[in-house]
Amino acid sequence: MRNIRMKIAYDGTRYNGFQTQPGGNTIQDIIESAIETLTGTRTRIIGSGRTDARVHAEGQVFNFHTDSRIAVERWALALNSRLPEDIRVVESAAEVPDAFHSRFSAKRKTYRYSICTGKFHDVFRRNFEFHHPSPKLDVAAMREALRHLQGEHDFTSFTTNHADEKSHVRTIYSAVLKEEEKRLELYLTGNGFLYNMVRIIAGTLIHVGQGKIAPAAIPGMLQGRNRLLAGPTAVAHGLTLINVEYGDAEK
Amino acid sequence: MRNIRMKIAYDGTRYNGFQTQPGGNTIQDIIESAIETLTGTRTRIIGSGRTDARVHAEGQVFNFHTDSRIAVERWALALNSRLPEDIRVVESAAEVPDAFHSRFSAKRKTYRYSICTGKFHDVFRRNFEFHHPSPKLDVAAMREALRHLQGEHDFTSFTTNHADEKSHVRTIYSAVLKEEEKRLELYLTGNGFLYNMVRIIAGTLIHVGQGKIAPAAIPGMLQGRNRLLAGPTAVAHGLTLINVEYGDAEK
């Protein structure tokens, strides 16, 4: 069996998230159906991680094992011609070692959380950013809060679902808040993110920006290991999975 | 009667264009209905010009005459709360002199035509740009062609509908082709544009970029005053009305 790795982008607006679930209509379902029409065989794909309903991706990665002899350089176009236009393979496929696993082999992930701070929402990005017209967010305070979140921490207070994770310790390598005239973009890069972790960090930062939470309160939130200590979970549609990185050998 | 001027943005994807027409589902219809629910009176709005089905606007302008006493600073939020999220008032309303007419008073308009030149289309902009993955477009040739289009010309060869225009002479003040890694953006600013003029210029430029039309052929196209001489009409969804400018007194 060959192990094929692909990178996709999707506008998650009309899907029930990445991962197959009883309600159907997921990115995974759509891709597995496209692969089936191409190869004639139902094939399970392995994503780098799930994304929730209405969450987007610029660079989600998945892999799958197949007997198909289709050349790697043909996969992207062949699959794209079978996918709806809000899901797109965005790089040539690669044949990877058998041990490569999109989730377990991932070394770093980057997410973006976008906030439109203009008085009126942007019609062209309305499904891709949270609209927060007022009050004006205190960006300096938000950046100070971010500094407390960088590094290795137990992020129990910043996740909502503990069931399937042995450890809540994760490392955030980079946490940057970019400011434009009518937009704030939070970029987080880490070795992994717990369920809802980016959205809870974004929601907490928004409360910091509103003056409801002091930046100095962040260390206590981390130490308390209790979801009730952190801010709200920011709405899903502002979140985009930007990139997943693997070790050089698997790249 | 007061004369109220407003600026709106819209994602034109699901509408049959700006202007009211028998098939309904136009931006104008939606706005007039919103104004009616606000004031209780059916009110005809005057747009700066029509935009076709699937064409977008960042800065379309309209005005209307009303007896309503609603304060100008309340109009934008009041109307936005009654509009679908793909149509948005993006500036505070202004009360303008009775003689102000969004179409006749317009001095300059700017349109953008966007072309995605990446191998795969961008899922987030798929409704806002034309996808042209190959062959690679010759940007230098396209810019040379644009220089021939700048200035005052009879644009008969670059319009498809002559019925309601007395003159086909228009002036293009500025014609700029911006190049990004996977995107070309054509910005045209002029004192007015004939029906389909920007899309025919874009389609002609794409043929120039493909080497099908020489830049030096543009002057002959203009002089020939015949639609058959120019290139094809580029697809509607790549077009966005960016801005409409008025004289200082009416601004």
TrEMBL record, chains A, B:
Pseudouridine synthase I TruA alpha/beta domain sequence ranges: 9-104, 145-246
Residue positions of the active site: D52 (nucleophile)
UniProt keyword annotations, A-Z: Isomerase, Lyase, tRNA processing
One term of GO molecular function: tRNA pseudouridine(38-40) synthase activity
Organism superkingdom: Bacteria
Broad class of enzyme this protein falls into: isomerase
Substrates-to-products reaction catalysed: uridine(38/39/40) in tRNA = pseudouridine(38/39/40) in tRNA
GO BP: tRNA pseudouridine synthesis
List of residues binding substrate: Y111
Pfam families listed in its UniProt record: PseudoU_synth_1
E.C. designation(s): 5.4.99.12
Function: Formation of pseudouridine at positions 38, 39 and 40 in the anticodon stem and loop of transfer RNAs.
Family membership noted in the UniProt record: Belongs to the tRNA pseudouridine synthase TruA family.
Subunit structure: Homodimer.
Protein name in the entry: tRNA pseudouridine synthase A
Organism: Paenibacillus pasadenensis
